[in-house]
């Protein structure tokens, strides 16, 4: 019985970490999408870096929107499979609430740049 309880506790913890990891990635993708959309509205090109701006790669709003859509679908599927109740509307509301702060954070750390 103890082994079953321990296994259940470990599994629950791992699932929670997995869902939290998806949430963090989704917030980052949402921030990138928000940033790219605003950059393109101003006539610029969005760039992303994984080394604080030393090397930048261009990306488009449409590319990141497609990636975000796929990632949201995956996160919702995994949440459903782990017994969590989440809807796309709830997820969209959460992401909309956090995307501006995430975009600002990523820009200030040199991860995102808009160039005209």
TrEMBL record:
Protein name as annotated: Uncharacterized protein
Signal peptide range: 1-23
Species assigned in the record: Pseudomonas brassicacearum
Keywords, ordered alphabetically: Signal
């Amino acid at each position: 019985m103890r082994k079953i309880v321990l296994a259940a506790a470990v599994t629950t913890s791992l699932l929670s970490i997995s869902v939290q990891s998806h949430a963090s990635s989704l917030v980052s993708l949402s921030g990138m999408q928000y940033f790219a959309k605003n950059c393109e509205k101003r006539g610029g090109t969005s760039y992303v870096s994984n080394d604080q701006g030393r090397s930048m790669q261009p990306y488009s709003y449409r590319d990141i929107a497609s990636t975000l859509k796929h990632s949201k679908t995956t996160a919702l599927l995994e949440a459903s499979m782990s017994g969590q109740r989440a809807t796309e509307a709830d997820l969209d509301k959460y992401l909309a609430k956090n995307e501006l702060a995430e975009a600002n954070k990523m820009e200030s750390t040199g991860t995102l740049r808009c160039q005209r």
